[in-house]
Specification:
By secondary structure, the chain is of the alpha/beta class. It has two domains: about 140 residues, ATPase, nucleotide binding domain (Nucleotidyltransferase, domain 5, 2-Layer Sandwich), CATH 3.30.420; about 190 residues, Nucleotidyltransferase, domain 5 (2-Layer Sandwich), CATH 3.30.420.40. Helix content is about 40%, strand content about 25%. Bound molecules: adenosine monophosphate.
């Protein structure tokens, strides 16, 4: 038995989950939030109990120290050496990484070189990695990339129709995101496709960030997010795909700078921007129940865009055997799933079974009728598990 930690370091946060491997049993999980502040929060969940302390955490190194203290003082481990491997989530792996890799100096340098493509995320991941490295210099460290699963896309799918020179010189292309989730979902989805020779899966990771991926024979062939997670379908606060003229035109109209408008497209658009209510689908549903017209419009636009991508990927895959719903809205939104499936029914023959879909939240289940032309399932995603498994396999291979 061995303990492996999955880590997700943000600019002011550090999320962790400790697993017992190979059983993949979660031992504890938690988060340091508001790193950089005197009144930061350190939370840990263990044995069904949660604790949250407000303490100064001025940097990520302090967060790692607090984590080590908590693990030992709670008797979860006797010493940090019991942790044999750490998997670090990395948002942007650019064109360099098509799978998880050992977090050595070369990996570190490449992740650093990709900072311009994901300035907030990659910088923070490196800070997190270095903080652990200082504390546990000899542990097996593995970098697990959100973009890696999408590296199987062909040129015609990942290139933007911009001058080719820019694609090459600046690596300006579609990288996608949520790859670890789509990879997990497509593997889990296979159990519904026994006997299907070349499985075609449309995986819908629909949370506050949302992306859809077309997967053939276990490989990503197309994905909705682009150079950054701003692309693709409409999301909680992000626009998704836009005519690029919208940027120019709105900057002229409002006098705002490109940077200001970019922030609006990222943080004030999507469900929040259209509904003027909230980015949270639960608040939108409550507003719809009270007859709020903009909430209804936001909801309809959202469903429409999800269906547009599913239709596009149905064509791209030459059909589909399985549609998977996952993440916050996909897992917990029976109404959302029903609306999407109803819109797909006339053209794709998708038939949802209300007796299986209604009330289903956060649990795996097949929700289509037996005569549906495409099976539809809900599968809760588990990115941390993939991160821990990849880290563990590098430990075993050592
Ligand atoms: P995620 O980014 O995957 O954590 O998804 C978060 C989003 O899922 C929230 O902003 C809500 O819009 C939506 N959601 C709907 N129902 C639930 C629920 N019961 N629990 C969590 N998220 C939910």
């Amino acid at each position: 038995m061995a303990k492996v930690m999955a880590v997700n370091a943000g600019s002011s946060s550090l999320k962790f989950k400790l697993y017992e491997m190979p059983e993949a049993k979660v031992i504890c999980s938690g988060n340091a939030e508001r790193i950089g502040h005197e009144d930061a929060i350190f939370g840990i969940k263990y044995n069904g109990e949660s604790s949250k302390d407000i303490v100064p955490i001025l940097d990520h190194e302090r967060a790692v120290e607090l984590l080590a203290d908590a693990l030992i003082s709670k008797g979860i481990i006797k010493s940090m050496d019991e942790i044999v491997a750490i998997g670090h989530r990395i948002v942007q792996g650019g064109k360099y990484f098509s799978k998880s890799v050992l977090f050595d100096k070369k990996t570190e340098d490449l992740i650093e070189s990709l900072i311009p493509l994901a300035p907030l995320h990659n910088r923070a991941h490196l800070v997190g990695f270095r903080a652990f490295k200082k504390y546990l210099p000899d542990v097996t460290s593995v970098a697990v990339f959100d973009t890696a699963f999408h590296q199987t896309m062909e040129e015609q799918d990942y290139l933007f129709p911009i001058p080719y020179e820019y694609s090459v010189k600046y690596d300006c292309r579609r990288y996608g995101a949520h790859g670890t989730s789509h990879q997990y979902l497509s593997r889990e989805g296979l159990k519904y496709l026994e006997g299907v020779e070349h499985p075609r899966i449309i995986s819908c990771h629909i949370g506050s960030g949302a992306s859809i991926t077309a997967i053939k024979d276990g490989k990503c062939v197309a994905t909705s997010m682009g150079l950054s997670p701003l692309g693709g379908i409409m999301m909680g606060t992000r626009t998704g795909d836009l005519d690029p003229t919208v940027m120019n035109y709105l900057c002229q109209c409002t006098g705002k700078s490109v940077e200001e408008m970019f922030q609006i497209f990222n943080k004030k658009s999507g469900l929040l921007g259209v509904s003027e209510v909230s980015n949270d689908s639960r608040d939108i549903a409550a507003a719809i129940a009270q007859g709020n017209k903009l909430a209804m419009l936001a909801d309809t636009m959202f469903v429409r865009r999800v269906c547009d991508f599913i239709g596009q990927y149905f064509v791209r895959l030459g059909g589909a055997d399985l549609i998977i719903f996952s993440a916050g809205i996909g897992e917990n939104g029976p109404d959302f799933r029903e609306k999407v499936c109803k819109e797909l029914e006339p053209s794709l023959g998708v038939k949802i079974d209300p007796s299986k879909n209604d009330g289903l939240r956060g649990k795996e289940a097949l929700i289509s009728k037996p005569d549906s032309k495409i099976k539809v399932v809900v599968i809760p995603t588990d990115e941390e598990l993939v991160i821990a498994q990849d880290a563990y396999s590098y430990y075993l291979a050592k």
